[in-house]
Amino acid sequence: MNELKILALDTATEACSAALLVGERVYARWEEAPRDHTKKILPMVQAVLDEAGIALSDLDAIAFGRGPGSFTGVRIGVGVAQGLAFGAGVPLLGISTLAAMAQGAHRQEGATRVISAIDARMGEIYVGRYLLQDGIMVLDGEEQVTAPEAVAQQPTLSGLWFSAGTGFETYADGLSALADEQKPCPAARLPAALDMLPLARAAWLAGAAVTPEQATPVYLRDKVTWKKLPGRE
To answer: What CATH number does domain 98-188 carry, 3.90.79.20, 3.30.420.40, 1.10.10.10, 3.40.430.10?
Structure first.
């Protein structure tokens, strides 16, 4: 049986990363580079491919950080992934950046329950809750863009929950008591393509791959971009 080969890349936040799964072997690059995604992502992709000794055409699929995150960052990631997928003739797998951070908290801290929150600017956060199922972080409820105070007013979660993401840095006071016991995971403050790989493998096995033209970003805050256009509400 051929080894599963999945390339993952993410530019949705301040971090820029690429990772490659070849069977059980993993190759990864990660850097916090807020304004250099377009310069760094393709060299990172080439670096992991070279390290593994394979070509784009050898891949089974390409996973990308579909968002939420910065509009520009998400668009860069989707565009690069589509271009690579068209060139290699392989399908795409969109992976949530919030889920990737939750998976990172599991990898770094052994977390089984995680609240992921990204600073969405404009006094809001992107937030989601995740529970570990068979080694994979699965969304509990839905991902939202909302004010931190709205999250803080929700019923207190029981037990121990890990917190991951820049939302907990920006709104530390307001988000400090979401659960009976809350433990920060600084190592998962930003998503990493490395942590997208287990999620991508599960998505691949579930038949969730799509053609490049079907790949779509997840902004959660679509209305903001529409309102910038005359006559759009």
So the answer is: 3.30.420.40
